[in-house]
Structure formats: structure tokens, C-alpha cells
Design goal:
Blueprint (H helix, E strand, L loop, with lengths): L3 E6 L8 E6 L7 H11 L3 E7 L4 E7 L4 E2 L3 H15 L5 E4 L2 E10 L2 E7 L4 E4 L2 H11 L13 E4 L3 E6 L3 H5 L2 E2 L1 H11 L3 E9 L2 E8 L4 E4 L3 H13 L7 E7 L7 E7 L6 E8 L21 E2 L3
Helix pairs in contact: 2-6, 3-5
Length: 301
């Protein structure tokens, strides 16, 4: 019987970061069974791994409602779970969007995993997409940062990047769940990556994820990789660069993501991950899961 592990990624404490389910021995599980397990776990994503050769693993990611093409935090969690289980330090994950290599090092806070995304791409965001998303969020166009224009960014999954002009606007997140879910489905978006620039290389982020049945993601590695590609494509950083992203603070699950941006190639995203035991189940500590009839929820603490 496959064993379900629970890890919090992009944190060094079980009460921070983004929780992920991890199954290292998912051979023989049907799609329906994986979806049921992910829904029962209730985290943003659960990763299901099967061995594909020495140091290689096929992985699929399921949110409580649907399979997603790529998930950064569950990749980080899976890599560190493999390190704990078998000492693996350089796993290569065969994901639905391509190969994602990970390297593990150890620092004062424990194992640190660094994934390298598939090649990112950035495209224009249609004005009607931006307008509809702002309406669902309850944001005004003049509350956006003109120096960070809206774009759709991809590094394994598609995200609409919207930059707030102020930290206060980012902190006051209260959106129409049903409307944003419909927009995400229509435009094949995994999350909306809401960001605020504190310094040239330091950002805060929030990621609504209604299409996955999650009101808000505490740490979104796929969006961080996509955002790294966005910064490079728009010439907003001098490469090579390292950018820090703070996420989850506004929902009580502080997360820290480090993004490495080289002049070309995939984007590197680094973070720690720690095992969650039953006493520290992350669902009791800020992760908000929408019911099937949810249409609007207040996200403020």
C-alpha cells in the first residue's frame, strides 16, 4: 500500500510554508484514485512518484479538484522526502511538462532543494483578461504598478502576473471565488500571481488558486519560476540575479522562496521543506480550502 507523507515546503517549520502530500511509491494507482487521495489530503497539491530508472522519477500532481501540469512546492517537498528516505541528492523528475532536475544541499536549516524549471515563456495579457481579473479581485487598474505590467508567464504552468503598487493593496485580498475560477478555466491559468516589489530583488506575493479548490496558496514555486522568467523577459533584473519572494505572511504561513535567474535557460527555485506530523497538520494553521459551493470568501485574517 503506498505511503502518504506530508511536508511543508519553502519553510523550516511545519507551521509555515505550503503543505504538500507526497507518495514516493505510487505505482499502480489510477487517475481516479490519485484524485481521491489528493481531495482527501486537502492540500494545494499532492505529488505521486513512480521510479523511472536510477535517480529518475515520474511525477504527477493533483490538487483537490484536478490534475495540474507542474507544482513547484510539491517538487521541493518530494525531493527532500527522497533525500530523507534514500539519501537522493540529485533526482530528476519527469513531469507532464518536461524534465525538472533538482539538487539537494544541506545548510544550517536542513536540506535545501533547488529545482530548475523548464524553459519559461512570457506573453501579453489580453486587456479583457486583465479587466475581468481585476473585477473579480475588486482591484482598480490605477492600483497596479506601471513598472511591472500584466503578463501571462509560464515555467511549467500558466500564471497571470499582476503587480500591486502598494503592500496595503496586496494585503487586503478579498475576491470573488467563482468569478476568478471561471476566468482561470477560460484562460488556462493555474494561479493569479499577485506581487508587490519591495526592492529591486525582493518581492511579496499572493496566489489565489480557486481552479484547484484552494482559496490561496501559501507558497507557489511554479509561479515563482514563471515570475523569474517574467523579470528576465522584461529586463527588470540584470542577470545573473537572485530574487527573494516572501509569500504566505498574510495568511499566517510565512514562506520564503529564492529564485535564481540566469541569462538563459530554466529558472532555479530554492527552498527548504520539513516533515509534518499529525499534531502539526497544516490544515489547522491557515490553509483555506473552498467547498464546492463557495462563491466568495473573505481572505483576511
Amino acid at each position: 500500500m503506498p505511503t502518504l507523507l506530508r511536508y511543508a515546503a519553502f519553510t523550516d517549520t511545519p507551521l509555515g510554508g505550503n503543505p504538500a502530500g507526497v507518495m514516493l511509491d505510487a505505482d499502480g494507482l489510477t487517475d481516479a484514485r490519485m484524485q481521491t487521495i489528493a481531495a482527501d489530503v486537502g492540500y494545494s497539491e499532492t505529488a505521486f512518484l513512480t521510479a523511472a530508472g536510477p535517480g529518475r522519477y515520474r511525477v504527477r500532481y493533483f490538487s483537490p479538484r484536478a490534475e495540474v501540469p507542474f507544482c513547484g512546492h510539491a517538487t521541493i517537498a518530494s525531493a527532500i522526502a527522497l533525500f530523507h528516505a534514500v539519501g537522493e541528492t540529485s533526482p530528476r523528475f519527469e513531469t507532464p511538462v518536461g524534465e525538472v532536475p533538482v539538487t539537494i544541499t544541506v545548510d544550517a536549516d536542513g536540506p535545501l532543494a533547488t529545482l530548475t524549471s523548464v524553459a519559461p515563456r512570457v506573453e501579453a495579457a489580453a486587456p479583457e483578461l486583465v479587466a475581468a481579473t481585476l473585477a473579480a479581485l475588486g482591484w482598480r487598474e490605477d492600483e497596479l504598478d506601471p513598472a511591472l505590467p500584466p503578463r501571462v508567464a509560464f515555467a511549467g504552468a500558466r500564471h497571470l502576473v499582476l503587480a500591486s503598487a502598494t503592500r496595503a493593496r496586496l494585503a487586503d485580498l478579498d475576491y470573488d471565488f467563482g468569478a476568478l475560477e471561471r476566468i482561470q478555466r477560460e484562460h488556462d491559468l493555474t494561479t493569479v500571481d499577485l506581487v508587490w516589489r519591495e526592492t529591486q530583488i525582493s518581492f511579496h506575493a499572493r496566489n489565489p488558486f480557486p481552479v484547484g479548490g484552494i482559496v490561496e496558496d501559501p507558497a507557489t514555486g511554479a509561479a515563482a519560476a514563471a515570475f523569474g522568467g517574467y523579470l528576465r523577459a522584461l529586463g527588470l533584473v540584470d542577470t545573473p540575479a537572485v530574487v527573494d519572494i516572501r509569500q504566505g505572511d498574510d495568511m499566517g504561513r510565512p514562506s520564503r522562496l529564492r529564485v535564481g535567474i540566469d541569462p538563459e535557460g530554466g529558472i532555479r527555485v530554492s527552498g527548504h521543506a520539513v516533515r509534518i506530523d499529525d499534531a502539526a497538520d497544516a490544515r489547522d494553521s491557515g490553509l483555506r480550502i473552498a467547498g464546492t459551493d463557495a462563491s466568495h470568501q473573505d481572505l483576511r485574517p
